[in-house]
Structure formats: structure tokens, C-alpha cells
Amino acid sequence: MKKPSYFQIFIDNREQFSLLSDAQAGQLIKALFAFAEDGTLPDFSDDQSLQIMFSFLRATINREFDNYGKRCEQNRKNAMARYATASETCEEEEKEEEKEEEEEKEEEDTLSPEKRESPRACAKNEENKTEGILKLYNRLCPDLPRANKLTKRRRNAIKKALRETDAQGFEDIFLRVSRSDFLCGRNGGWRADLDWILDGDHLVRIAEGSYDNPPPAVEAAVSSYDIDELEEINRLEYVV
């Protein structure tokens, strides 16, 4: 059983300690340290008070050590579970990347030889596009958290989105975001960021206007009447 590097004596035990002499209290403390460290049991056969106090505190230490061992084991299991989840996520991302690479290769194979780019040129062009989207976001969405790094997750998300839209589509989306009070946090509280924009179906919902500001309320026009004109109209109606 894994043991902690400490044991506790509670304030509630002060009353029991106060019944002991200083010499007895010193012996008891030393005995508790020895027991907590290596399980050594003292010989208090000639002092019933110390026997009772040690027995009581020994049970408390054993419970603490037992609970500590259980917590350590549970923490170990939780860490293993998190590691397993992270590993599964990494495997899924790798599979997604492999699938994307296969799709890109299939698209390239359908091109005529004169339209095909070298792998290096194609990769360079793709990298330039993803970096361009990052810069476009920082330029058009100054109210949102700045995206300084093109992480692997962002790069993959941008590549995936570029299959559905182009740079102009991204520009329209970022402009909609910059005009949205909700997404820019102008109403207080939460703000979107690049990772949120690229996540899930948020791009589609932004493009569809789901986060646009509501139209301004139309105030009813207030008509003003000239009293003299109104009386003249009433007079003409009676004449007729």
C-alpha cells in the first residue's frame, strides 16, 4: 500500500493530550512517527494511558493511509483513462489526415499531366493558402483573440474548410463575424475565436447568418396634424 509522507493529529485530540504529562506526550509522538514510517509498534504495557491513546491514533493513521492508497489508485486509473482517450483522439486525427491525403491524391490523379503540380509545389501552395486564412482572420476580426500560430489542428481545419469554400468565402465569413455583436462579445461575456469558427458546422451557420445582428426596430412614424387644416377638412365634408 502506498503511504503518504505525513500523518495528521487533529485539534480534537488536544483534550486527550492535555491529560498526559509532557514526558508521556513526547513518548506518544515519537511512537506515532515510528509507526507511520515503518509500522513499528511501541511497548506501552506499563502505561495504560499511552496504550489507549496510541491505539486510538494508530487506527486514525491506518484509515488515512488506506484512503490515501485508494485515492492514488483512483488517480492512476483516471490518468490511464485520460491517456487512452487522448490516444484514441490522436489515432482518429491520424486516420482523418490519411483520409484527406488519399482524397487529395485522388483529386490530383484526375488532373491532366500539364495541370499537375509537383508534390513540393502543391504542398507549398497549400501552406500559403492556410497561412493566408490565418492572416485574413487577424486582419478582419480585430475584436477577437489573435491567432498567432498555425497549429496542426488549425491547419487541418482550414484545409478541410477550403474544400467547401475559397478565400473569398472565408473573407465573407470573417466579415460577418466582425459585424456580429454576439460573436465579438460586444454585449459582454463570451467571444468567439478562430478555433471556434473553424469547429463543426459553425462556418456554415455563420455563412447562413445565424449569428448576424437582429435588424433595428422600426419606429412607427408619428403623424403631425395642423389643427387649422383638420378643421378646414371637416368643414368641407359638412358642405358637401
In short:
The protein has helices at residues 14-18, 22-38, 48-109, 119-140, 152-162, 167-179, 194-198, 202-207, 227-239. The mean pLDDT is 81. It is elongated, with a radius of gyration of 38 Å.
Strand composition percent: under 5%
Average pLDDT figure:
81
> What kind of sheet is the major sheet?
none
Which regions have little confidence, pLDDT < 50, spanning 5+ residues? none
The helix content, as a percent range, equals 55-70%
What can you see in these coordinates?
With 240 residues, this protein is mainly α. Helix content is 64%, strand content 0%. It contains nine helices and no strands. Helix 2 packs parallel to helix 3 and helix 4 packs parallel to helix 6. It starts with 13 loop residues before the first helix and ends with a helix. The mean pLDDT is 81.
Question: What's the arrangement of secondary structure elements?
Answer:
Layout lengths: L13 H5 L3 H17 L9 H62 L9 H22 L11 H11 L4 H13 L14 H5 L3 H6 L19 H13 L1
Helix pairs in contact: 2-3, 4-6
Defining key terms:
9 helices; mainly alpha; 64% helix; 240 residues; elongated
